[in-house]
Amino acid sequence: MKKILTTAILCAGLFSFTACSDFLDENPKSQLTTVGYYTTEAQALANVNYLYRTGAIRQIASAPSAYVGSFASITGLLTGYFLNSYEGQEIVCKYSRELNRQQYTMQISGTMDGIWDACYKAINVSNAAIKSIPDIKMEEALSKKLIGEAKFFRAFNYFYLVKTFGAVPFYTEPYVTAENMELDRTGVETIYAQIETDLKEAADALPAAKFADNSHRITKYAAAMMLTSVYMQQGKYAEAVPYAKIVIDSPHSLATNDDLKMNSAFNKLRSTDDLDEVIYAQEYDNAVNTSDWFPTYAFNSSAVSVFGTYSIFERVYGPTDEFLNVYEKNDLRIQPNQFFHWEYTNPNTGATWSSKNAGCWYYYDEDALLSTGKGTKDWNVYRYAEALLDGAEAIAQSQGVTAEAAGYLAQVQARADMEGKTADQIASELQKLSKQAFIEACWTERLREFPLEYKIWDDCVRTGKFPVISKTEAGRIDYVNLVGAQNASGATFKETDLLWPISVNEMQRNPSLTQNPGYSAQ
Known about the structure:
- The chain is mainly alpha-helical.
- Helices cover 42% and strands 9% of the residues.
- It contains 19 helices and twelve strands.
- The chain has helices spanning 2-11, 41-50, 56-60, 71-77, 91-97, 109-132, 140-165, 188-205, 220-233, 237-248, 265-271, 321-324, 366-372, 384-399, 403-416, 423-430, 435-449, 456-463, 504-509, and strands at residues 15-16, 19-20, 23-24, 27-28, 82-83, 278-282, 318-319, 341-345, 352-359, 379-383, 465-469, 477-481.
- The strands form six sheets. It has a two-stranded antiparallel sheet. A two-stranded antiparallel ribbon has the order 2-3.
- Strand 8 (341-345) and strand 9 (352-359) form a beta hairpin.
- Helix 7 (140-165) packs antiparallel against helix 8 (188-205).
- It is globular, with a radius of gyration of 22 Å.
- The two termini are 16 Å apart.
- Mean pLDDT is 92; it is low at 1-21 and 25-35.
């Protein structure tokens, strides 16, 4: 713990902000402590800007290596429905898919260190901002927004830690010395209570504007969307409903299909930034912050002969054929060049790539792959489609199958329907379902709508259910209890699989920590 929080103190003063076409720019400036670096408006803005590209968001929306994706991609491998083609080297991927991490705690401690360190750095910067900004001379409106953003990111990082590790050390005051940092683990109920408070206060303080219209800064709707997720992760469905509806009733909306091919909503989501559907995204451009290896994740290793811009291609998060059977045959999302693809011809050279295993078309970045070698497509963290699905499920869980819930689910299903059914027609059919069947329809739609956005494992843990996708009947999914079920690789889920181990290195630094059940402390 000592190393992490000491580093966090320094990181609070590492970055400054300059405008660059509304892009959150960061450049190294100093290594002052939080106390010395929260005296002016510029310093406060610099520290809050730092939160946009550190901590948990890097565990979700980064592509740090050609061989392994962000940590969020590794969690999806637990299901066995997604594979990393380089797992022989990236052993955390292999141990995750085989559900035997408990035997290799030391070997995966480096991965766990990365999550722990990054999240606590962001939390400490957030704590310092929340404490210090009220004493800095600036316009009240700006002070209110910066504190709201800091509370959002404190909640974001604690939420990620709790989902990953369970009970973790908890503090809301900034650390300015290396003393008294050996904290015990705090129960998740206490941490969730603070997360909820932070997000409610952030939602009240932040602008009621679309993400793209707010200079890509956190908005009321991003805070409400995250609070919806927080409530649903705890099974507090009645509490989730009003916050889902805040987002649903916002200026955000679903991207639409101009056609059912390259101008579909799904190709717009893949290729176009600043859509009204996007509630919160990690921002990328070709100068300040590129998307690193994301474009290469669209193919497998044989694509090196097709492109000259990248030297390595791997399926770091490749779907199995079994997973792809989650889609019914008339679902637009399973058609070639929507979310997935099997063949590609370079328009500049005529070189062709083909594979019997699906590539991830959602990651395809044309400019990066054909010319620049720099990925610029933003990574969508929260989309309006998720608000609709959360709203539909939360209402059904707490109130039953209402016309409102059916209408929300129908909007997502109608966009993917290739037979011309309207949302009203689909909603009418959905209202005939039993409560449990409707809830499972919401779960299934999440599998189909977010296959490459790393949400599958959180949904398994939240619901306590594992989706058994039929190998023979397209679109059929049966939900069974998660613990005791076999993943798609034939490994059996144990209670200890629901959390990750605390790093052995971290436990040696902080003797107050205890290890999660099933994992070694050494």
